[in-house]
Amino acid sequence: MTTDVTLSPTLSGVARNRSRRRSQSTHLNTAVGHAVMVLLSIFCLFPVYWMIISSFRPANAIFETTLWPTSASLENYTYALNAIPIGAMLVNTLVVSAVVTIAQLFTGLLAAYAFARWRFPFDKLIYTMIALTWLVPFQVVMIPNYLLVANLGLLDSLAALILPHFAGALAVLLLAQAMRSFPAEVIEAARMDGAKSWRVLWEVITPNLRGTIASLAILIFISTWNEYFWPLLLSRTPENSVIQIGIQMFMTSEGTAWGPLMAASTLASLPILAIYIVLQQQVIQSFMKSGIR
């Protein structure tokens, strides 16, 4: 009995020491993790910062390595706005990106519902073929799509930029996966209330997939906004082109106008940055809910 009483404070002290060491280890791991994230954030944001800062450097100081321009100037923006129709190109890019995003979400929802809730002949084969098309680079089918658009008389038009992207395999696959995990009991309850497939899709399933739809919309919009090769193949006039082609116009055989190029790139990035700032919380939540990393 005496031995137990004697050892009790010792065991308690050992437990406290272990708890203290675990706490210190946890704090150390947290500090290291935060330090790594800060370094990665700087690594990711520095090119954007350098682009913006370089857009304010005059031509004779464009290659300076200082973190802040010694003599800031707006001449690059003035030159870029006068050299190409940036406003029209930004509007064209916004229209194409928005229409493609809406079209792929609409067609993706319809196809995903069919694959997730209906059974029809060769449904698995068709689904597999759609999945395989996602692995095929767009450059492989670029020439057939070009011939199709040319035969339709749509060259040098926004419709030509939209048509080949009207449906996307990624939208079908992601939405079908989300719909398969949707509770079947909810759908059955809606059917017992007399709801048909169209009403079930738009009034029951779609409102509960806001996270998946939001993350998918962001991916489609950014991917379409950054598209370069397809507009390069189709565009004939700057007024019917997109901003990515306008940025490329500052790179010629005579040399690259780095200042105006950085100014045009900054203007091209502003809509995407504005969308992210406004929808930052929604972006984070949607990616977490949909499981995209």
UniProtKB/TrEMBL annotation:
Instruction: Specify the protein name.
Output: sn-glycerol-3-phosphate transport system permease protein UgpE
**Gene designation per UniProt:** ugpE
The protein's predominant localisation is membrane
By its UniProt entry, which InterPro entries does this protein fall under? MetI-like (IPR000515), MetI-like_sf (IPR035906)
Annotated localization: Cell inner membrane; Cell membrane
Keyword Transmembrane on entry: yes
An annotated GO cellular component of this protein is:
plasma membrane
Question: What residue stretches are annotated with the ABC transmembrane type-1 domain?
Answer: 90-279
Record text on subunit structure and interactions: The complex is composed of two ATP-binding proteins (UgpC), two transmembrane proteins (UgpA and UgpE) and a solute-binding protein (UgpB).
Q: What organism does the record attribute this protein to?
A: Mesorhizobium australicum
Give the protein's function.
Part of the ABC transporter complex UgpBAEC involved in sn-glycerol-3-phosphate (G3P) import. Probably responsible for the translocation of the substrate across the membrane.
> Which UniProt keywords are present, listed alphabetically?
Cell inner membrane, Cell membrane, Membrane, Transmembrane, Transmembrane helix, Transport
Which Pfam families does the record associate with it? BPD_transp_1
GO BP terms: namely: transmembrane transport
Q: Which PROSITE patterns match?
A: ABC_TM1 (PS50928)
Span-the-membrane segments of this chain are 28-52, 83-113, 125-146, 158-179, 200-225, 257-279
Region of interest (Disordered), residue spans: 1-22
Query: Compositional bias (Polar residues) spans?
Result: 1-11
Q: Name the membrane topology term.
A: Multi-pass membrane protein
Q: Which family does it belong to?
A: Belongs to the binding-protein-dependent transport system permease family.
